[in-house]
Amino acid sequence: MTAPAADPQLVKLARTLHVSVDDLGYLADVPDTELRLFRFQVADMLFDHQSVGLRRIGRAAKVIPTPILVKLVGRHRNALLAAKMSAVLDPGHAVEVARRLPPDFLADIAAQLDARRAATIIAGLPSATVVSVAEQLAARADWITLGDLMSSISNEAARATAAALDGLALTRTAFLVDEAGQLERFVGLVPAPKLADMLHATADHDLWAEFRTTLSALSPDAVQSMRAAAAGLPAVQRDRALAEIEGCRAAE
């Protein structure tokens, strides 16, 4: 997977366009809001191009009993088609199918999803299913998909996922959560010991650039939670984390 860069919107746009982040360096000065809008426009254009055929498949799938649909989807293991179908299936039906599929295949599907169109389905997944998929994605270092997943899952599932992932996975994921409001929710659901783990990972892997990007999207209350977590770190890590936090606040 692509390593995190200083601009999460460029990382995500590169994924949508199936190109290297380096190929988009000329867009580095474009505001994030414009990059995000363009990414959505590209995704919508690709979906609209195939929507007629997908809706026909969706209508046919409504009359297929769930156990049979699970067998069909699982047998062919076409993650891209399954992801596209999720946008036209009844959400309740899609959740029933998803919870019966193996976690590794669900992770394949998640990597192909337009999270905006699948948000209702993702929110309806059981916590145990979400955690299993998140662990698969973390093992693949697919932080983009994990960031999208964390934006849509329930609070209960988010807490369970935060408990299951290590500090490095949570740090990489936070950097790629798409909306400030969802990032705020994510940080608010991560317990203090895990926030400390995230800061440890930031120091150990020199992810301060990503940390600054994450901090800049947080409210004062969420930043205060980070500051409190930093206070318990070893001296060198603590001082660096607090300096980054104060520097971010001063720059606003």
Summary keywords:
16 helices; 252 residues; mainly alpha; globular
User: For the residues shown, what is the average pLDDT?
Assistant: 84
Uncertain regions: pLDDT < 50 for 5+ in a row? none
Between the first and last Cα atoms, what is the distance in angstroms? 32 Å
Helix fraction bin: over 70%
User: How many whole angstroms does the radius of gyration measure?
Assistant: 19 Å
If helices are DSSP runs of H or I spanning 4 or more residues, what is the number of helices?
16
State the secondary-structure class.
Answer: mainly alpha
**Overall shape:** globular
Proportion of residues in extended strands: under 5%
What's the number of extended β-strand segments?
0
Summarize the helix and strand pattern as letters.
Answer: HHHHHHHHHHHHHHHH
Largest sheet: none
